[in-house]
Design brief:
It contains five helices and nine strands. It is of the alpha+beta class. The strands form two sheets. Strands 1-2-3-9-4-7 form a six-stranded antiparallel sheet, with no helix packed on it. Strands 6-5-8 form a three-stranded antiparallel sheet, with no helix packed on it. A hairpin with a 2-residue loop joins strand 5 and strand 6. Helix 2 crosses helix 3.
Length: 180
């Protein structure tokens, strides 16, 4: 794995934007973007500062996992994040999925809940509606899917998911890890 990709994965795992990481390290959003795309190399001081904000030691950052690959995951392996303000719960099904090619998550919306707007990327996204009805705004287009339907798209335009049901909606999302 490239250093930039690993930095980006850690930043996303900490739920930070490039701008937020830049503010916490006195670096520009553009420079963070260059680091994550391996277009620039940080000084040791800058690198250690970034790792400190991301909450990992250099040893942890460079350690190669030598443990056996886990195949079966239980609910105890998952991580849950609830955003009360925007009305959704995000459940990461695989603990280290942000370091893999695919990231499966369960997203449960409260009534009128909405998920953040994502910037364009090369990520491919699969969504299966388990309950309720959701809309995907992809660029200027809006798509609706209800229970039992699936959505599949390449995220080359800004995109956002919203609940359109008169109650909760629950979806399974599997996204690849391909950024512009």
């Amino acid at each position: 794995m490239e250093i930039g990709e690993k930095l980006r994965n850690l930043r996303v795992q900490k739920n930070l934007t490039q701008e937020e990481l830049g503010e916490r390290t006195d670096l520009s959003k553009g420079y963070i973007s260059q680091l994550e795309r391996d277009l620039s190399s940080p000084s040791m001081e800058t690198f250690f500062s970034i790792l400190e904000v991301l909450g990992v030691t250099p040893e942890e950052f460079f350690r190669q996992d030598l443990v056996d690959q886990q195949i079966v995951y239980t609910k105890e392996d998952s991580t849950i994040y609830y955003d009360e303000e925007n009305g959704y719960e995000l459940k990461w099904l695989i603990p280290d999925s942000n370091e893999k090619e695919m990231e499966p998550v369960l997203l449960t919306f409260d009534q009128a809940g909405e998920y953040k707007t994502f910037e364009p990327s090369l990520s491919e996204t699969f969504i299966y509606v388990l309950d309720g009805r959701i809309t995907l705004t992809l660029g200027e287009n809006v798509y609706t899917a209800k229970k039992g339907q699936a959505i599949y798209y390449q995220a080359t335009e800004p995109h956002q998911l919203k609940n359109q049901a008169n109650g909760k909606s629950r979806i399974l999302i599997v996204a690849t890890d391909s950024y512009l």
